[in-house]
Design brief:
Number of strands: 5
Order of helices and strands: HHHHHHHEEEEEHHHHHH
Helix content: 40-55%
Largest sheet: 3 strands, antiparallel
Shape: globular
Strand order of the largest sheet: 1-2-5
Length: 317
């Protein structure tokens, strides 16, 4: 395409945009972008010329995503972010600059995430210690480390250092779309680098987890922590197992990510330094830690309120 040509439609630029990122992003992120383009952006706007797309059409597109397809506000926002990036990329190849409409990002209502109460915390720990097997041990490890589900599924005993008493998180497991049609199944298990592209992070063990590690160590460095063998448990299967654990403990609304939220909240309640906590959780900034993962209990709120100077309002009359 020469500099003077501008007769390509948006679907062409969508493909170019994705191709340019192929070797710069993780495979999971690539499939996420591809899904947004193929399922949403190209079917609705792909037949239009980028320079002709107006605000009214983008607003209509947002309404289709929100009202007709009933996608979550965050999902809609992510799709619009990709759309804007494609339009900006296309503009750079145009001979003349053109107006890129503002994206009508939907308002995201912040939901209070589920965190285990102290009593629920104790109930779950007792359950996980009773008749403990490698899977229960792995879930307990998450409760005291804040690891993501994909990270604990990919964790092998070679990542557990019993000398330094640390856990090295360097991989994550996820199920992705299978691009190779010659292989069986529409999806496959992929084990790659952890979220945010960081090579690894080190999590110190608590004394109790260290003692359990000494007991559970299968002496096979290639064994997965969740199984004690070289066979893994994938995230979807672990989610189902966690659901059964919660039901057996009579815990409502508890899923695997609840463990991560609970860990972060308990750390803050214990006076954990936020920068250290952010690094242990594998966040790119402390803002994410504070905004998304830290939830004060009513008990902690009462303690903090009691720190205020107690003024006798009635004595001022």
């Amino acid at each position: 395409m020469t500099k003077g040509e501008n007769n390509y439609k948006l679907d062409y630029y969508c493909d170019r945009w994705l191709l340019q990122r192929r070797n710069r992003i993780k495979e999971g992120t690539y499939f996420k972008y591809e899904n947004m383009l193929e399922k949403h952006i190209k079917p609705c706007l792909g037949d239009l010329f980028p320079q002709n797309i107006r605000m009214e059409q983008v607003i209509e597109f947002e309404q289709v995503l929100s009202r007709e397809k009933r996608l979550a506000p965050k999902t809609v926002r992510d799709i619009l972010v990709v759309l804007k990036s494609v339009l900006s990329s296309a503009q750079k190849e145009m001979p003349l600059r053109y107006y890129i409409p503002e994206m009508p990002y939907p308002r995201e209502e912040k939901k209070e995430m589920r965190v285990l109460t102290q009593r629920e915390f104790e109930i779950l720990i007792s359950f996980l210690l009773e008749g403990q097997d490698p899977c229960k041990f792995g879930v307990l490890m998450v409760l005291f480390s804040g690891m993501r589900i994909g990270e604990i599924c990919a964790l092998q005993w070679k990542n557990v250092n019993l000398v330094d008493r640390t856990i090295k998180v360097e991989a994550t497991m996820q199920r992705l779309k299978n691009k190779d049609e010659s292989l069986k199944g529409k999806t496959r298990i992929y084990i790659g680098t952890q979220k945010n592209g960081n090579p690894s992070r080190i999590i110190p063990m608590t004394d109790s987890i260290y003692e359990l590690c000494l007991r559970m160590d299968p002496k096979n460095k290639n064994a997965y922590v969740l199984t004690g063998t070289e066979h893994y448990i994938e995230p979807r299967a672990l989610q189902h197992r966690m659901k059964r654990y919660a039901e057996q403990c009579n815990l409502e609304g508890v899923h695997f990510h609840t463990l991560r939220h609970t860990f972060a909240t308990r750390c803050v309640e214990a006076g954990f330094e936020i920068k250290s906590l952010s690094e242990i959780l594998g966040h790119s900034s402390t803002t994410i830690t504070l905004d998304r993962y830290v939830h004060s209990s009513m008990e902690l709120k009462r303690i903090n309120m009691s720190k205020l100077m107690d003024i006798d309002l009635f004595s001022k009359k």
